[in-house]
Amino acid sequence: MATHPHTPSAAWSTLMAGNARFVEGNSNHPNQDAARRASLMSTQHPFVMIFGCADSRLAAEIIFDLGLGDAFVVRTAGHVIDNTALGSLEYGVEYLDVPLIVVLGHDSCGAVTATKNAVATGKMPAGFIRDLVERITPSVLTSLRKDKDSDVNAMVEEHVKQTAARLVENSPIIAGAVTRGRAAVVGLTYRLNDGRADLVYSNGSIGF
């Protein structure tokens, strides 16, 4: 990467340029050589934090054409927030000065589908999957209140929006960075068919 983005708007531009290359099949695979690896032995300066779904089809560094040291990535099924995930994101803001936080969902999400089915049938899944479903349920219910015929992808978009908003609401560290213009929070939904990431939420200045 020719320059390291230090502002939310520069980070946003770099991130979306990488996604455009991936969609077009022209990925550069930057920052993946031995020299880059050696340069990161004692320090890291990622320009983006990606809080995404753990789905195997949502490999963040690939879909945004990034390399070693570019992205601080936190993933849970359905990008469900818990204290550990939130603490990890706060670490990136407080200690790594990361200027852009991305909440990344995707269409046909299994965790959201499981929640949709649980809401429809009243039958909860077993084990700790139930915890995931309980945390996603408010987003599914909100989507259904807006449109009783909401499909899974509409629910995913609502869940991305609610997750991104909750990061700012629940974390004084993240909220303070956004207020001071040091960071921005955005929500993206990823299309499995064409690889494109679409903006559905933003809080902070990303250049438009």
TrEMBL record:
Top-level class of the enzyme under EC nomenclature: lyase
A GO BP entry: carbon utilization
Entries under CDD domains matching the protein: beta_CA_cladeC
SMART domains: Pro_CA (SM00947)
Cited SUPFAM superfamilies: beta-carbonic anhydrase, cab (SSF53056)
Pfam families: Pro_CA
InterPro entries, A to Z: Carbonic_anhydrase, Carbonic_anhydrase_CS, Carbonic_anhydrase_sf
Cofactor(s) demanded: Zn(2+)
Gene Ontology molecular function, alphabetical: carbonate dehydratase activity; zinc ion binding
Entry's EC annotation: 4.2.1.1
Keywords, comma-separated and alphabetical: Lyase, Metal-binding, Zinc
Database matches in Gene3D superfamilies: Carbonic anhydrase
Cofactor binding summary note: Binds 1 zinc ion per subunit.
Catalytic activity reported: hydrogencarbonate + H(+) = CO2 + H2O
Domain of life of the organism encoding this protein: Bacteria
Binding site for Zn(2+): 53, 55, 106, 109
Function: Catalyzes the reversible hydration of carbon dioxide to form bicarbonate.
Family, as annotated: Belongs to the beta-class carbonic anhydrase family.
PANTHER family the UniProt entry points to: CARBONIC ANHYDRASE, CARBONIC ANHYDRASE 2
Protein name listed in UniProt: carbonic anhydrase
Species of origin: Arthrobacter alpinus
